[in-house]
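Take a protein:
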Amino acid sequence: MPVAPPGSIPPVGGRTIGGDGRTVPRPGDGAGPGAPVASPDGSGTPGTVRPRSAAPMPGSQRPIRVFLCDDVDAFRALMRVVLEEDPAIVVCGEAADGAAGVDGVDATRPDVVLLDLAMPGMDGMEAIPLMRERAPRTRILALSGFTADRLAAPVIELGADGYIEKGEDVAVIRRAIHDAAQRVRAAA
């Protein structure tokens, strides 16, 4: 089993969870928070970032802002639904490739990014150092179908804060997001 590097999130569920473009409109989105916004060139074409503001949760800290970056539309939609079942998590943006993900992370400054590694165009491995450069406080969790023993160490070496296999239980993914966000807030 890979060992988490110092200062990272401890192993969860037997796997290392280190310290880890087309935008799809959310059903029911219209004007207001979460509504699609124009792309930098005003066209609203792929690469559009969909920022969504989150109202503070009564009696607690603001929600954990998560950015999803995965080339599979259905996977992003499913992750949004299962993550937002946790009232402490809000998905603030999505992207379908690394380049749009880098721009989206730069624009939204999320607490945590869930980043697929295998995407067309700029993949997650290329995006990690760029995301780290543009949003140094954002925690990057690589979320991949490849096994942790194969890629966790190189991904963390590139600047990701952790690695989660796509087959993990959603509770493990949520816990990794909470742990990563706690580190962001502790550093503030």
Notes: The two ends are 32 Å apart (CA to CA). The domain at 64-187 is CATH 3.40.50.2300 (Rossmann fold).
